[in-house]
Write a structure and sequence with these properties.
extended, Elongation Factor Tu (Ef-tu), domain 3, Pnp Oxidase, Chain A, mainly beta, 293 residues, 15 strands, 3 helices
């Protein structure tokens, strides 16, 4: 049961109310934006909330049980609130959206009524429509360990234990770069080292953006990083970035490349899917059809 501040509850029970909704949008990097359906700017909890042109909410569906509730918010794209380039760059992917009920005559009187995650975003001309997913959607995601041959940890995390500082390299983008293909000057490294690695831009218009590397090759003395997801724009010549080594999560890679076999978080000796259809062959130890010894 939701509890409301006593004074706010009293105003709700009165004959007239001065209420509005406020949305607090918090990106993964901690940057926050505030919006309201009131017709004037409000300051709520120290955050300046832009008026009606920014956000407009649809009806929110909810139900008892563990079903995922959802709704949508729509609004205008502008440099002062939500920029189209930031949405395209994925800066708002997975952002948290807090919905507050606020008394606009006294913004200190407020109640948190919902917390959602920003889902799919659709764009049309100079506007956007964003899906809101309730916290219940986290229950649909896998958690815990899975019985599989590959490692379930990510390179460099607490379960893996490898120090990424020793496997991170610096590079400078070349003018031949494209949104999905970064051409750069990099120190010579072992073949395949950057496959599934992570590249993070440090300077230029793409500063702060990261992408996973699908493939790594060397062409004409320059390193070529093919990305899984294209960048919103091609890196400019001279843009600096850091790239961390990748891991294909196989036991042999963990053992031979990173000398980290003791921390491997998979089951490398589990039988494969073809084990049940194998047949005995002459000379196979223990598979000659004879009595077990």
């Amino acid at each position: 049961m939701r509890e409301l501040p006593a004074e706010l509850l009293a105003r709700l029970q009165g004959g007239a109310t001065t209420l509005c909704h406020v949305w607090k949008l918090i990106r993964a990097d901690g940057a926050a934006r505030g919006f309201t359906d009131h017709d004037r700017e409000l300051i709520v909890g120290g955050l300046t909330c832009s008026p009606r042109s920014a956000f407009e909410a649809s009806e929110i569906e909810s139900a008892l049980g563990l079903a995922v509730a959802g709704g949508e918010v729509a609004g205008a794209l502008s440099a002062d609130s939500l920029a189209a380039a930031d949405l395209s760059a994925g800066r708002y992917d997975g952002a948290t959206v807090e919905t507050w009920l606020v008394d606009w005559s006294d913004p200190t009187l407020r109640a948190l009524i919902d917390v959602s995650t920003l889902g799919e975003v659709r764009r049309a001309d100079f506007a956007f429509v964003a899906e809101l997913r309730s916290l219940m959607h986290h229950l649909d995601q896998e958690s815990g360990r899975i019985y599989q041959s590959s490692c379930s940890a990510d390179l460099g995390d607490a379960r893996c234990g490898v120090a990424l500082s020793g496997w991170t390299y610096s590079g400078v983008a070349d003018a031949a770069s494209q949104p999905g293909r970064v051409v750069a000057v990099l120190a010579p490294v072992a073949p395949g080292l950057f496959a599934d690695g992570k590249v993070t831009f440090l300077t230029g218009a793409l500063a702060g953006l990261s992408r996973r590397v699908r493939a790594f090759s060397v062409e004409g003395g320059l390193s070529v990083l093919t990305l899984w997801t294209a960048l919103p724009a091609a890196p400019a010549a001279g843009d600096q970035f850091q790239i961390a080594a990748g891991c294909d999560k196989r036991f042999s890679t963990c053992r031979d490349r990173f000398a980290n076999a003791a921390a491997f978080r998979g089951f490398p000796h589990m039988p494969g899917a073809d084990y049940v259809v194998r047949y005995a062959a002459n000379g196979d130890a223990g598979l000659d059809g004879g009595l077990a010894r």
